[in-house]
Amino acid sequence: MSENENQQTEQANTDYNKWVIMIVLLSGAFVAILNQTLLATALPKIAADLKLDYSVAQWLQSIFMLINGIMIPITAFLIGHFTTRRLFMSALGSFAIGTIICSIAPNFSILMVGRIFQAAAAGIIMPLMQTILFLTFPRNKRGTAMGMFGLVIAFAPAIGPTLSGWMVEHFPWRSLFYLILPIIVIDIFVAYFVLRNVTKRYFPKLDSLSILLSTFGFGGLLYGFSVAGGDKGWANTNVYISMAIGAIALTWFIVRQLKLEEPILEFRVFKYKIFTLTTILGMVVFLAMIGSMVILPLYMQDMLGFTAFESGLALLPGAATMGLMNPVTGRLFDKFGAKWLSIIGLTVLVVTTFMFTTLTVETTFTYIAVLNAVRMLGIAMVMMPVTTAGLNELPLDIISHGTAMNNTMRQVAGAVGTALMVTVMSNTVIPSEGLEGAVHGVNMSFIFAGVFAFIGLILTFFIKHRKPQSES
C-alpha cells in the first residue's frame, strides 16, 4: 500500500490540496498545544470542585507535559509503521476520547485518564505534522509552511491561560472541554476526506527495551525538572531520584540506538552539523521563551497584585506579535535563509531580555506587555527559521527522526528552562527587603535567561548563509 499509493498521492497533490491539508494539520496542532496550557488558570476551580489540594490538581498540567514528552521520541517509529492518514486520525481520535472523558469525569482519577489520552495524542500530532509539511512542500516553500506552524506554536500556549481564565469566570470548568471537542470532531471529519498518505512506511522493528528506556529516560528528566520548577524546588528527594533514573536510562537508550540497525530514534541526525547547531539554537530560544512565560505571571500576580486573568492578558500582545510575524519570517526565510534573520532576532531577544532585568514594584502593565511583545518579535525571527534550516539539511528518509528529535529537545529545554529560571529567582530573593527583594530574584532570573540568549547570538554566526534552493 504504500509506496505506489504514496507516489500517486504526491503527484496528485496540487498547491491547493497542500494548503487544505495544512489547515487540517494546523487545526489539530492548535488544539493539541492549546490544551497544554488551557487548565492553567482553571486549576483552582477544579481543585475546589473536586475537593483536591492544589498540589494534587497541578498534576493535570504536569501529566500532560510528561506523557507528551514521552510520546514524542516514539513518533518516528510510529510514522514508519503506519500510514499518514491512519496515524493522524488515530491521534485525533485519542484526543477526542480524552476530551470526552475529561468533560464527564466525576473525579480526579478519571480526569487524569482523560489528560493522558490527550497528551499521548498531542505527542504524536506535533512531530507528525512537521514531517508531513516537509514531505509535502518543496524546499523553497517550507519556510512559509513552517511559519504558519509557528503561528500555532505562538498563539495557542499564550491564549490558553487567558481563555481559561475568562471561561471559568462565566461557565463551569468542564466548558473548557466542551469548547475543544467540536473542533476535534470537525477536524477528524475534514481530515478523512482531504488528508493524503505522504509518509513512507518501512515497518521498523519494535524494540521494546528502547521504548522502555526512552520512557524512563525522557520521562524521568522531564518529571525531575518539572518538580524542581514547581513549588517544591530542588530540595525534594523525588527530583534527584527521578533525574538519576532518567539520566541512566537516557544514556543507555542513546548507546542502544547507535548500535541498532533500525533505531526507535535516530541519533545520527546529529552528524549533520547545521541540524545540530539549529537544534541547540531552538532549545536556547525556547528555554528563554517558556521560562519567561512562567516568571512574568508569577511576578505580576505575587508582587504587583494583578489577577491571573490580567497577567495572562499581558502575554497576549506578545503571542499576537509572534503569531502574526511567523508567517512573515517564514517567507523571509524562503528568500534569504536563516542566518541574518537569526542574528537580528537574537539581538532583539538579548536586548529585551536584559531590559527585563530592571523590573521594580512600580513597573506598569503596559511596560511588561509592550516589552514582551518586542521580545516575542525577536523569538519569531529565530524559532521557525532555524528549525526549518536544520530539517532542510536532513535526507527525506530521516526527516521523521529529525522532527521527533527537534520536538523532544524543545520539550526538554522548556522543562529545564522553567526549572532553572524559577530556581535562580527563588535563590536570589532578598527576604529582608520585602517585595523589592522578591523582585530582585525576578531580575536575576532574566539575567540568567539573557546570558543564554547571548550564547545563542554567538552561535548564529556559525549558520551557513545560503538561500533555500527550489526543488522539483
UniProtKB/TrEMBL annotation:
SUPFAM superfamilies assigned to the protein according to its UniProt record, in alphabetical order: MFS general substrate transporter
Superkingdom of origin organism: Bacteria
A GO cellular component entry from the record: plasma membrane
Main subcellular localisation: membrane
Gene Ontology molecular function terms on file: transmembrane transporter activity
Keyword Transport among UniProt keywords: yes
Residue intervals of the Major facilitator superfamily (MFS) profile domain: 21-468
Segments crossing the lipid bilayer: 20-39, 59-80, 87-110, 116-137, 144-163, 175-194, 206-225, 237-255, 275-300, 306-328, 340-361, 367-391, 412-430, 442-463
Keywords: Cell membrane, Membrane, Transmembrane, Transmembrane helix, Transport
Record membrane topology: Multi-pass membrane protein
Any Pfam family matching the protein: MFS_1
Compartments, record wording: Cell membrane
NCBIfam families according to UniProt: efflux_EmrB
PANTHER family: MAJOR FACILITATOR SUPERFAMILY (MFS) PROFILE DOMAIN-CONTAINING PROTEIN, MAJOR FACILITATOR SUPERFAMILY MULTIDRUG TRANSPORTER MFSC
Name of the molecule in the record: Drug resistance transporter, EmrB/QacA subfamily
